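the four lines:
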Amino acid sequence: MFGGFPASADPYAMSLFQPSDSEYESRIRANFARQQVMQLMGASLRRVEPGAVSIALPYRADLTQQDGYIHAGMITTIADSACGYAAYTLMPADSGVLSVEFKVNLLRPAAGEEFVAEAEVIKTGRTLTVTRCDVYSHAAGEIKLIATMLATMIRR
Amino acid sequence: MFGGFPASADPYAMSLFQPSDSEYESRIRANFARQQVMQLMGASLRRVEPGAVSIALPYRADLTQQDGYIHAGMITTIADSACGYAAYTLMPADSGVLSVEFKVNLLRPAAGEEFVAEAEVIKTGRTLTVTRCDVYSHAAGEIKLIATMLATMIRR
Amino acid sequence: MFGGFPASADPYAMSLFQPSDSEYESRIRANFARQQVMQLMGASLRRVEPGAVSIALPYRADLTQQDGYIHAGMITTIADSACGYAAYTLMPADSGVLSVEFKVNLLRPAAGEEFVAEAEVIKTGRTLTVTRCDVYSHAAGEIKLIATMLATMIRR
Amino acid sequence: MFGGFPASADPYAMSLFQPSDSEYESRIRANFARQQVMQLMGASLRRVEPGAVSIALPYRADLTQQDGYIHAGMITTIADSACGYAAYTLMPADSGVLSVEFKVNLLRPAAGEEFVAEAEVIKTGRTLTVTRCDVYSHAAGEIKLIATMLATMIRR
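prediction for all of em together
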């Protein structure tokens, strides 16, 4: 905002997040494979980086609400998992992660061919991690921001 | 809270909500049947009353997250639909309803045989309706509050 | 909702909250006296019960926004403190309490002679407590719900 | 996130927000002067740009909670006003603006010499505008993100 910090001086820049578990990516990919609902929905894990994770969901008619758009709950499901995993990249190998709470603003109808939830960590703490997620629709080469989430995750 | 109002004097009591469309229940049941994702998940519409709607979701392994609990996004999906339909009971016959935003607190892991989202309208306005939803788990005859949502719906 | 539980069977009934610190009320009244901003605003602590606290704020022109209503931030301030103290009634004597996050829906303009924030605990945990707060305006003998908060508090 | 769009291609870049009222800045400065609570708190309006507004609040002991930090409600007050005015920059000259709802995460204790709320518009619509606000503390030359808000504003 307002140009804000130069990236190099921003104490919240992603590059400053150092995972304590160097095997974080394989840990998260294995965990994602255990989320059976992701298979039901057809969602897949994309990028896994320190403090940042993205999940993609192709359009499918059986995920829709009354007007043919993807149901807000499905968009929330990939956003919540992306936030949880973004937080989880920075947690120790022997920990678990659970959602405490989240808020979602639905900005545009979820129309398009594919939906990508891009989550990043805003703040880490001993027990709580705060994350943000933007969800984009992809349709005919056009990308639109359709939803944004602000979420609190807890380490277990 | 604190005993609050006697029910008869409470201006927010449900009984004061008068649907402008006397056919609200059939309108909502027809609309619910068009939410294809509800069939995918196995969710069903329960009560439909002026300003209050409930939706039930039986446990299924393919709705779970990494620990075998129902994914927070699935709980959110039934809560969001219950809130939307609670608002929709009070809207005119020719209107539509969309979620503007919602916030969910996950209070306990979603373990149990069945999950019921019970939504009610807090405040109606010309365009916006504010709703609240509590989600309960049912397991071996025991009922627990597992999540609560506060949501804003818009008339279209 | 829907009549819900009989009060005696409701596992979330306030009466089931047993403070571990029998001196909770004096602890909270002393803590409130240290919140200097409450004096600046003219807010006062009303009821202090296990899991439930209320705070009152009389109308004052210097608390208003551009239209002469009490600023949403002032309403939030008493709601946040009421939620924090409701949670704090159930915490041990040597603990502290901080707000993790909250969401507020502003339901009606904050017009009236006095505003009362009534908070109650929904769920307690080892570290986190989830609370809800309704804020009512009082004007010429009429009481209106003007805002509602859903908040997460942490024990320190 | 993830580098995201090049700024020039990002359809959500601030530069794409074109105020319909060329006198937006003076309109907002006049409106801010009518928010009496800002004077009570000692808050001042900083930048006013299309879709982006910042408000500053110097530390004062009479704005504090029980531990000597600025009360979360005061931080929320400047964040809410910054969000409202960010939305208002893009609204017509004859309109008004009100908060529908907001959610705040408190990331660090509000310690420091000054607190700056930096709000920006995420999405504009006919009636609703969604905004985001980060609040930074300034202390001994060090800047920290202490809170973040996601808010919905309505045009009146």
